[in-house]
Task: inverse folding
């Protein structure tokens, strides 16, 4: 069988099963079994493939995923996240558009720790959009920042999705996590400037309203008790990884323990909150591990059938410049994001794109960061980006798709500008890991 026939059989089987409504991970597993039977010698090949897939689940690099997810679940269910939202709102006083800034800062913390942009968008959309609407904010000032937080969440550590991508691509987990720090700060700056410009261009977009005045003493006390402890957990684990004192798995463990201690100190650590946190983290972890299993076996089948080798050879035969090939891969991810969620896209593209990137001489950490940003941008790309429809589902009645599209464009532009900067100046991503 030719390589393109093998590729069409494997990818086509997955797409067909997904179109029938089968869950993504199970569709990959079923297609892998079919492929193993055809390419690896029947039942014996299936057994060998399953053994290899089980071996992929024993990697130490997977340990941070459940711990990062547990951090986020505890942060949310104990109410620590809500305290931080309220405190930031009070600290910003009468700053025009301050709830938009609160959404970016607090929303980034939520979605970074949870590892789910869709979950974060649903939560913030139902929580913040109605509140900001009651205070007179125009839709683009509430919807846009929520859609934009995903771009920050996916690259600023701790990011469960970044850990999963690094594991699937077999690159250094710590390096990919640390590589997102500087670009993440740059993207946050872009978002803040965007909100500031929007309030300057149209002051009525975020009208001022009376707030209880706070003395400097109360502001400092609120900052130290309600914001610094929560943000401090994330900052400490980032510093520990940058300095090389801990591995990503150890950093995730310290983070989970840190959030538990905070919840206990603030007297919000209840049995019910822990039950919900453990259940939520376990549900997503099992899905992630099943996905790793499917991806590992899919990669082996692509290699065994000659599909990955043939595809790389075919793609490089066009003699396109590396930058042009990068843009083609970026465009493919944007297109897939209109129909699939991020993990499904990773499963489908990582086994193909990373060998191709390696053949083009791209740094794997730098390419991984570019791919993470492409995954997130694709989620908010009109007309079919999935987050746009999640927002439509939770936004107040009467919110039009046109309003959601126009709200997303400035923040998509910020992310695209960051991608351009990373292409022009790769050291923005590689400087910290090199230390």
Result:
């Amino acid at each position: 069988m030719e390589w393109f026939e093998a590729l069409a059989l494997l990818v086509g089987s997955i797409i067909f099963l997904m179109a029938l409504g089968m869950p993504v991970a199970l569709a990959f597993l079923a297609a892998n079994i079919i492929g193993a039977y055809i390419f690896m010698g029947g039942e014996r090949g299936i057994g060998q493939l399953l053994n290899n897939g089980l071996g992929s689940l024993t990697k130490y690099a997977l340990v941070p995923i459940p711990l990062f997810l547990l951090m986020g679940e505890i942060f949310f269910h104990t109410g620590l996240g809500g305290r931080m939202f309220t405190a930031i709102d009070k600290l910003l006083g009468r700053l025009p558009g301050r709830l938009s800034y609160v959404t970016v800062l607090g929303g980034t913390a939520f979605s970074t720790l949870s590892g789910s942009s869709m979950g974060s968008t649903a939560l913030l959309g139902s929580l913040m959009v109605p509140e900001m609407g009651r205070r007179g904010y125009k839709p683009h000032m509430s919807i846009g920042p929520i859609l934009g937080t995903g771009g920050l969440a996916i690259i600023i550590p701790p990011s469960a999705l970044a850990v999963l991508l690094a594991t699937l691509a077999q690159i250094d987990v710590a390096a990919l996590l640390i590589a997102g720090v500087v670009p993440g700060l740059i993207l946050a700056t872009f978002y803040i400037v965007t909100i500031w410009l929007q309030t300057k261009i149209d002051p009525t977009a975020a009208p001022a309203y009376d707030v209880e005045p706070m003395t400097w003493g109360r502001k400092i006390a609120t900052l130290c008790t309600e914001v610094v402890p929560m943000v401090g957990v994330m900052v400490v684990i980032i510093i520990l990884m940058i300095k090389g004192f801990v591995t990503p798995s150890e950093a995730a463990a310290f983070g989970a323990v840190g959030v538990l201690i905070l919840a206990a100190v603030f007297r919000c650590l209840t049995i019910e909150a822990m039950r919900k946190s453990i259940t939520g983290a376990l549900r997503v972890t099992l899905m992630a591990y099943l996905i790793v299993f499917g991806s590992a076996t899919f990669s082996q089948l692509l290699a065994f059938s000659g599909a990955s080798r043939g595809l790389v050879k075919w793609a490089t035969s066009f003699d396109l410049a590396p930058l042009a090939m990068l843009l083609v891969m970026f465009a493919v991810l944007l297109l897939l994001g209109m129909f699939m969620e991020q993990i499904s896209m990773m499963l489908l593209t990582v086994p193909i794109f990373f060998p191709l990137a390696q053949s083009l001489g791209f740094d794997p950490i730098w390419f991984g960061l570019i791919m993470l940003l492409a995954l997130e941008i694709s989620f908010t790309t009109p007309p079919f980006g999935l987050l746009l429809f999640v927002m439509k589902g939770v936004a107040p009645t009467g919110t039009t798709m046109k309003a959601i599209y126009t709200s997303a464009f400035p923040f998509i532009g910020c992310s695209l500008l960051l991608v351009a900067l990373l292409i022009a100046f790769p050291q923005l991503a590689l400087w910290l890991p090199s230390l």
